[in-house]
Every structure is written in structure tokens, then in C-alpha cells.
Design goal:
mainly alpha; 3-stranded antiparallel sheet; two-stranded antiparallel ribbon; 43% helix
């Protein structure tokens, strides 16, 4: 890692592109060589019964990596253009391994043309749309026993004797496994929901996101919950100038920036990120930037928000900058980046 510390940003990016190209070349060459090992059955000379055992036990590939490489090498043996696509990056090992089993029942030329430049998820959708329709299974809810918590470190294996006070505790509630078939529209909506709630659940499971939506809906429309939450009317809050961005301005900024990071690189490329977006002050609040001016508020992803903080306010410890006071003495305020999470 240290060999790159002294290089400029441009040199590091240029070297990264060179390494990525070398890696794609190496993958294409290894796929071609693996195909020749299988064709000659050279793995048997080393004591392995098949090419899969050779890849996992001798070459130390993971099971998934071995699977992808074997399928890709067999496909490339029949269609050598796959090697050129792997080297160019228009196909990945995951995509090739996904479409290779389909060569027996579909036109390989059509499959390769449809898969070039697409992600694995996009190819899966393309294949699913062309498969025969399947009967929709009924919705199912399965009651599962509560998850077993791992024992604390250093604890001995086996059931521990229950203390007298523990015996009166109620058992843990069970969990439920839901199984249903979702439409494409619902799937897209759930993916958008994950983006919107990314700041709240960056590594959340599906039940985290659905639980948030269900709880929000019930809090608004469930009569029983409304009665429980009944309280005296809230005291009106006086508007004041501060760091926080008003709700209406948030919505306006979101609509203007299209729910997408607004950072644009020097070569004119706009960031594609739509997840974990934050409200950023173009002119930092700590040096006089306003929070009620739409022109001073924009959507940025976390990475570009921090990049702008470093560019404008510097690296390292929070710097202290003097602000002229109204009286005789000057006030010293912390130089804090204006980060405000969306959501």
C-alpha cells in the first residue's frame, strides 16, 4: 500500500486502470489455460478426480469461483470470442457462468449479444422474461422457533443451570418466515425503499425495511394507535435561521437533483449514486452559508460530501476558525462540515 502514498491523484487513478486491465487479461488467459487443462485431463496426473476438485483443492479457488471458471472455460472453448469480451470487460465471469448452461437450449450468439455490457441482475431479468410462465405458489407464513443466541465468549458448552429468578421469565417469541411472489413493480419499489432508508439501515435485512414502512403506515392509519398516541396539540415552532434545512426545501432540492448525487467531475460525469444521500451546503454553514437558500443546498452521496468537506475545510482534526464577534472579542467556533442525513 505504501508504494502509492507518494503518487499524485492522477497517477494513482491511472495505475488503477492499468491494474484493472491487467487483471481482465489475466482472467481471460487463466480461463483459456483452464480449458486446456481440462481438455488434456492434466488434473488426473496430479491425483485429482475431476477439474472441479483440481480448482478447489489445488488452485485454492472458492467453490463459487471454481464453478464460474469451469463454466466460462467450457463456454469459451466453443465460443472463443468470450475471451475477448472478458478481457475488454463487456462480459464478466458471473455473467458468462450464468448464460453458459443456457447454450444447450438457446442460441449462444443471441445470448452473448444480449448479455454484453449488462450486470448479472440485468441478465437474470432478461432470461426470466423469456422462460415459460410458472404457476404462482400460494403465500405462506411459517412459524419458526426463536433463534439461538451464541454463548458468551469463555462460556462452557452445554445447557447452563437456570437460576431461580430466570425460570419465571417468559420464553422468547418465535419468528416468522414469509414466502410470496412479488411483481416487478413491487420489487422496484422495495429497491427504491432500500435507497431511501439506506442511512437508517445501511446493512439492514428486508424485514428492517418492511417493518419501517408497516410501522409508519399503522402510525398514520391505525385507529387504535392513533388513540394511544393522542396528546395535546403541539406548540407552534417559530421559524428561525439555523443549520437545519426546512422540510419543504428538502423536497424541492430532492426534486431538483432528481434524487441523485449532484456531484459532477471535471470531465462532466455526474455521480450515479442514489443511496445514502445527504444534504450538503455549497458554502459551509460554519463560514456563513445559508440553509434557507435552494442554491446553497444540494444532494451529495456520503463519499462526495466528505470529499467537498476535505476540499473546503481541510483534512485531519476539526480546525478552529475565528468569527468576528459583535462585541470587542472574537468568537472561536469549530470548523464543522455541514452534513445532514436525508431521512
Amino acid at each position: 500500500m505504501g508504494i502509492y502514498r507518494g503518487l499524485s491523484d492522477e497517477a494513482v487513478l491511472r495505475r488503477m486502470e492499468e491494474l484493472a486491465l491487467d487483471e481482465r487479461k489475466a482472467i481471460a488467459e487463466s480461463i483459456a489455460c483452464l480449458g486446456e487443462v481440462e481438455r488434456r485431463k492434466l488434473y488426473s496426473d496430479l491425483g485429482y478426480s475431476d477439474i472441479f476438485d483440481y480448482c478447489v483443492s489445488h488452485l485454492r479457488y472458492s467453490i463459487g469461483s471454481a464453478y464460474r471458471r469451469i463454466h466460462s472455460s467450457r463456454a469459451a472453448d466453443a465460443h472463443p470470442e468470450i475471451l475477448s469480451d472478458l478481457q475488454a470487460g463487456t462480459l464478466t465471469l458471473c455473467v458468462v457462468a450464468l448464460i453458459a448452461p443456457e447454450f444447450r437450449s438457446r442460441n449462444p450468439v443471441e445470448l452473448l449479444a444480449a448479455a454484453r455490457g449488462k450486470s448479472k441482475r440485468e441478465v437474470e431479468s432478461w432470461l426470466a422474461a423469456r422462460r415459460p410462465a410458472q404457476p404462482v405458489p400460494p403465500d405462506r407464513v411459517t412459524v419458526r422457533p426463536p433463534a439461538v443466541e451464541p454463548p458468551p465468549s469463555g462460556a462452557q458448552a452445554g445447557p447452563a443451570p437456570l437460576a431461580l429468578e430466570d425460570r419465571a421469565l417468559a420464553p422468547k417469541p418465535p419468528t416468522f418466515e414469509y414466502s410470496f411472489v412479488a411483481s416487478a413493480d413491487l420489487h422496484q419499489s422495495i429497491e427504491r425503499l432500500k435507497n431511501v432508508l439506506w442511512n437508517r439501515f445501511p446493512f439492514g435485512a428486508l424485514d428492517d425495511f418492511l417493518g419501517e414502512v408497516v410501522g409508519e403506515y399503522l402510525s398514520r392509519h391505525d385507529p387504535e394507535l392513533k388513540l394511544r398516541a393522542a396528546a395535546p396539540p403541539p406548540v407552534p415552532v417559530q421559524a428561525r435561521a439555523g443549520r437545519r434545512v426546512a422540510g419543504r426545501l428538502r423536497d424541492a432540492v430532492w426534486a431538483r437533483d432528481g434524487g441523485r448525487c449532484a456531484f459532477v467531475s471535471e470531465d462532466g460525469r455526474r455521480c450515479e449514486c442514489r443511496r445514502g444521500l445527504e444534504l450538503d451546503h455549497v458554502v459551509p454553514f460554519s463560514i456563513g452559508g445559508r440553509s434557507d437558500d435552494p442554491a446553497n443546498i444540494r444532494l451529495l452521496c456520503r463519499e462526495h460530501n466528505q470529499r467537498e468537506r476535505r476540499r473546503l475545510l481541510g483534512e485531519g482534526e476539526l480546525a478552529l476558525i475565528p468569527r468576528p464577534a459583535r462585541g470587542a472579542a472574537a468568537e472561536v467556533i469549530p470548523k464543522i462540515p455541514p452534513v445532514e442525513n436525508w431521512g
